[in-house]
Amino acid sequence: MEPFNRLDGIAAPMPLVNIDTDMIIPKQFLKTIKRSGLGVSAFREMRYDADGNENSDFVLNKPAYRASSILVTGDNFGCGSSREHAPWALLDFGIRCVISTSFADIFFNNCLKNGILPIVLPKDQRDALMEDAEKGENARLGIDLEAQTITRPNGETIAFDVDSFRKHCLLNGLDDIGLTLQKADAVRSYETALAADRSWV
């Protein structure tokens, strides 16, 4: 998993509430177990028409937001089914941070396990960042995970909370496999001792 420390990027506004995981990545794309290649289908039904042509009204199709790495969203983002493909699709598109007032629990945890930082803020602070995000090419935010701050285009900073263990994992690029591999020496020592003590097993 790629470490997350600082992110300075364009923020795209997505004020729609209750964006569920099927809207993020429709069910027909769940056949793959690869984490790459899903970005082109992220928000499929909003990004494209029935013929596969881009919908020019959708925010991520607009020139100013094509390189967005941050989403500022409506309430209850990531609700619906517990598909891990949703954060895979966002990450493959280039999204590393999602800011909202609330997230579905499973989606929230899946983001953290895949290198995406979900930030929960009070409505007034989220709304201020939504206004910043609506400024097009000037919609740049600075996310500092170590300091736990968001820097707005006007220089104002907003503090956010993050679980200390999840912060450690993001800063060091540790997913569940990475955490397990940190114990590799201890596992090998245990297995060697066990083999010597119970050679018949």
The coarse silhouette is globular
Strand proportion, as a percent range, falls in: 15-25%
Mean pLDDT: 92
**Total number of helices:** 8
Distance between the termini: 36 Å
Count up the domains.
Answer: 1
Supply the CATH architecture: Alpha-Beta Barrel
CATH class: Alpha Beta
How many beta-strand runs? Answer: 7
Strand order of the largest sheet: 4-3-2-1-5-6-7
Low-confidence stretches: none
CATH topology: Aconitase, domain 4
Give me the Rg, rounded.
19 Å
Could you characterize the architecture of this molecule?
The structure is a single chain. With 201 residues, the chain is α/β, with parallel strands linked by helices. The protein has one domain (6-197): Aconitase, domain 4 (Alpha-Beta Barrel). It is built from eight helices and seven strands; from the N terminus they run E-H-H-E-H-E-H-E-H-E-E-E-H-H-H. The chain has a seven-stranded mixed sheet. The longest helix is centred in the C-terminal third of the chain and has 14 residues, at 184-197.
